[in-house]
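Journal club prep — side note

Before the paper discussion, L.F. wants everyone to see what a predicted structure for a comparable chain looks like in token form. Sequence:
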Amino acid sequence: MADHVFGGIKIRHLYKIFGPNALSHIEAVKNGLSKTELNERYGHILGLRDINIEIPSGGIQVIMGLSGSGKSTLIRHINRLIDPTAGEVLVNGVDVVQMSASQLQEFRRHQTAMVFQKFALLPHRTVLDNTIFGLEIQGVPRPKGIDTAMGWLERVGLRGFEQKYPNQLSGGMQQRVGLARALANDAPVLLMDEAYSALDPLIR
């Protein structure tokens, strides 16, 4: 992990309502309007209700729940791939919700990495170039980036496949590329959305 001291993550009173007029219904939800009532009366979907979590630096937090319970929605608020309807998401003491576009861009480049449930590989880039992608965005010189990427590809068992394209790989192999890409970034926050779902138990 990165060497600097990291202040952890604090999520406070986080709400997410999906729909065109989400803000107009937030008070009703806070006052007890149920998910079913919100959908039936107003055609809006309640994704998250009053989430409060504190994750200390160096810790591993596992979010468990049934399908559709909001697990992916929650972790996508940490890097603001989803904007909340209300609440705070403090990462290292800074509220991600209040970041400007340029601040958010820098935050995503250097403070977070993510393994996506559906892999999210770039189809026109090789395995190596997918793995090095985050390092390129950070401005890491290509020789150093290649060295780092190859190290992680070896760790996930994909050395020898670096010049292949995603459509030439199995689902499990694509997921391992996603893992290598995220780990290569060496970010303080690593978000993993069912990151092992396509992997065989022995590989996990």
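L.F.'s comment for the group: Strands lie at 9-18, 45-55, 86-91, 94-95, 112-115, 189-192. Keep this in mind when we get to the figures.
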